[in-house]
Amino acid sequence: MIVVMEAGASERQVQAVVERIRGAGLNTHISVGVSRTVIGVVGDDRTKEILRESLEVASGVERVVAILQPYKLVSREFLPHDTVVTAGGQPIGGARVAVIAGPCSVESREQILAAADGVKAAGATLLRGGAFKPRTSPYSFQGLEEEGLRLLAEARDRTGLPVVTEAMDAAQLELVVRYADMIQIGARNMQNYTLLREAGRARLPVLLKRGVSATIEELLMAAEYILSEGNYQVVLCERGIRGFNGHTRYTLDLSAVPVLKQLTHLPVLVDPSHGTGKWRYVAPMARAAVAAGADGLMVEVHPDPANALSDGPQSLNIENFAGLMASLRPIAGALGREI
Ligand code: PEP
Ligand code: MN
Q1: How far does CA 231 lie from the centroid of its chain?
Q2: In testing the pocket of ligand 1, which one of 107, 184, 273 has its CB within 8 Å of the most ligand atoms?
Q3: What are the structural domains, with CATH classification, of the chain?
Q4: What distance lies between CA 257 and its chain's CA centroid?
Q5: 52 vs 282: CA distance, rounded Å
Q6: pLDDT digit string (tens) for 168-180?
Q7: Cα separations (Å) of 287 from 21, 270, 323?
């Protein structure tokens, strides 16, 4: 439920409404817009219903609107304007298309620094790289763990690019928070509710990737877990869902972009690397994602994809990434955005 205050409502009127809501044992989220203050009410549905009538007639209140979807805090009804998330000073959402680029895994100092230098020169705004890797096989490279995080921090110091890296469980969060600028929650963990809640209590923004078999509603409910703990800095990422054709690793659901932009105020990114699994298809799908209105991209880039320890076949080399960035500029420009 949201309480929309009148355009000229005073601070005292807002405060009185907030106190009444909190007094009933419900939580509030206050959004101060240019012309109006909107108070989001979260908590038990029956209590909300009981409170509703008295809020409708409270001084300074214009109207009370029920949010019908199961997700509340992430919904557009709750916050009508686009949320801009800031990771290490870099905005995600808004006029500029954010580009998170870097290798699937941090493999060595030489590799991550070469990747970071390369993606920075080509115009990426954030650096990615996994230190804890969710691999399908327990025999595959599992990541450099804390050493990988240290190397990412060194790459950030050198290039100025904020770092995005994955935490696979709640126990890894503390380390990730110590070194990174943004916590990645991967597709396999989209419904790891303990991790989602812990990330909701963390002081870093969160990049939440869609599970490979998750519906849009399940993705939004997963994000709701993070916001419900007080962390409103959440970015969603479409990364391909399980399909039935063998041409691509997953089926990149680009229709998720306009659907999510309609349903939620959170920024929406697209990962065409995992979405296709083959480097040749990455650039076309990245361009399509920007054309579809994505707020940004997450792209795997490796200085030497042929020798990558993970996801080499879907990684762009530096030159191809630079070519992709150049080709995105006119597309972003045509849509009134920059990259
Ligand atoms: C990744 O970004 O390297 C990754 C493992 O992604 P996903 O969780 O989407 O598979
Ligand atoms: Mn990967």
Answers
A1: 12
A2: 184
A3: 2-65 (3.30.70.1140), 85-334 (3.20.20.70)
A4: 12
A5: 50
A6: 999 999 999 999 9
A7: 46, 10, 12
